[in-house]
Design goal:
With about 210 residues, the protein is α/β, with parallel strands linked by helices. It is about 55% helix and about 15% strand. The site of adenosine-5'-diphosphate has 14 residues, from helix 1, helix 6 and helix 8.
Length: about 210
């Protein structure tokens, strides 16, 4: 694959990923880069259809195993239709969540499925980001931010504070395990402070 740069943002619900992904796309494009902003679950027509099944409705609607399959199906479509074509054209792709979310949500928190999640990822996607920004926030803070949006997409927030605390630990462990591509960002600062650190990290990567 001719290489663009693949950047993902990860973290618990309401940690500020979308805010930072938007700011990053704007800064990069303003400075003459070609950056594409996308998200998971979603990011392509088919994956957005699957998204609705996943983020709405009763928390017990799907088992962790079924969720893993649905998220991976959505990711395959997203990867084929949006991510891979953009990277092949040399663009910077910014994705608000990617496979690390499945590793942490389905692999280590909703279920104990990490080995299967990794196998399925290897079989069906087989691609990792160049840079992953994990935005770290105390779940008490992020949960109140997230639910305040009242988006109707709160199925995962509805699992509660204990669940979000486990997720936070899962993301911190993942950042440690993949410390080459992952950076842990203190998400309790102002939006501007965080976006300035992120921009510095991205330019460092671009100039690697
Ligand atoms: P996520 O995409 O991780 O769910 P969002 O970017 O949608 O998070 O942010 C969730 C809420 O928190 C939004 O209302 C947003 O305006 C607010 N927010 C984002 N970043 C910060 C920050 N650094 N400090 C305070 N509030 C923030
Ligand atoms: P998102 O819209 O990013 O939620 P938020 O803005 O609250 O962070 O993602 C929707 C939900 O899907 C979110 O709670 C995390 C969950 N999710 C998984 O459980 N596994 C996955 O692989 C992905 C991509 C998301």
């Amino acid at each position: 694959m001719e290489k663009g740069l693949f950047i993902t943002l990860e973290g618990v619900d309401g940690s500020g990923k979308s805010t930072q992904a938007n700011a990053l796309e704007k800064s990069l494009n303003k400075n003459g880069n070609i950056a594409v902003l996308t998200r998971e679950p979603g990011g392509s027509v088919g994956a957005e259809l699957i998204r609705k099944l996943l983020v709405e409705g009763d928390p017990d609607r799907w088992s962790p195993e079924t969720e893993m399959l649905l998220f991976t199906a959505a990711r395959r479509d997203h990867f084929e239709k949006t991510i891979r074509p953009a990277l092949e054209k040399g663009k910077i792709v910014i994705s608000d969540r990617f496979a690390d979310s499945t590793r942490v949500y389905q692999g280590a928190t909703r279920g104990d499925l990490r080995a299967v999640v990794d196998q399925l990822h290897q079989l069906m996607i087989g691609y990792e980001p160049d840079l992953t920004l994990i935005i770290d926030v105390d779940p008490q803070e992020s949960l109140s931010r997230g639910l305040a949006r009242d988006s109707g997409e709160d199925r995962f927030e509805d699992f509660g504070l204990g669940f979000q605390k486990k997720l936070r630990q899962g993301f911190l462990k993942l950042g440690h395990d993949f410390n080459k591509r992952c950076k842990i960002i203190d998400g309790t600062r102002t939006v501007k402070e965080i976006s300035s650190e992120i921009l510095t990290l991205v330019y460092t990567k671009l100039n690697d």
